[in-house]
Give the backbone structure.
Amino acid sequence: MGRAFPFTSERIAELVEEERLKHSSQTLEMLLSIEGRDYVNNHGKNVKLSNLVGKTVGLYFSAQPCPPCVKFTAKLASVYANLREKNENFEVVFVSMDKNIDDYLQCFDSMPWLALPYDEEFSRALARYFDVQEIPTLVIIGPDGKTVTKEGRNLINLHSELAFPFTELQLRLLQEKQNEEAKAYPSSFDHVGHHHVLNLVSEKSGGGPYMCCECNEQGLGWAYQCLGCGYEIHLKCGREGEEESAGKK
Ligand SMILES: [Zn+2]
Ligand SMILES: [Zn+2]
């Protein structure tokens, strides 16, 4: 019988409060250590969890075979390499959702970062703690050990390494930068890849999260849109028709 039985409103409120306290006192070491195991794996070597304290750490819930995971692992690896090159205090720890250790090893082999040792039960408990609904998921833990965001995957897809350190402030700065850049684009134009005129939209004027029909990557906020067709592309993915651009020269 679960601890919540019977599901009185008092008991539920109690559990919610327990959960809140657990998250507010959260530290990286508390999250990742178990029964004296205080390290993660670096392709054969152990790395003490204490070495990760003070860094921004992405907990990467992933597995194979999973095509979206393969795609995102490649994207994350390039962002990881760029951030490390710039000496940013960023680390990633693979939390395996694999069903067996062979899949885990093969999956980890494709990753340039660290991993929790294979421990299905522990990984699933961690996924439950963060309410991970799908893989891949990238949960970002800040230098103080608190959760910054569970939207690491979307943020990396949208902004690549510019998303770092994934804070509200950084996202607001990116937003302002995009608003500034959008001023240089015409309010409508003939895109070579679509048979209707496209309109410049922002999040406030009918835009929103979308998949770019040109490059198949995620977009958010500013876009060129044909509302009738549900056709949307990144500003940078718009290409003017041959005649038009030739005429302007
Ligand atoms: Zn695009
Ligand atoms: Zn159209």
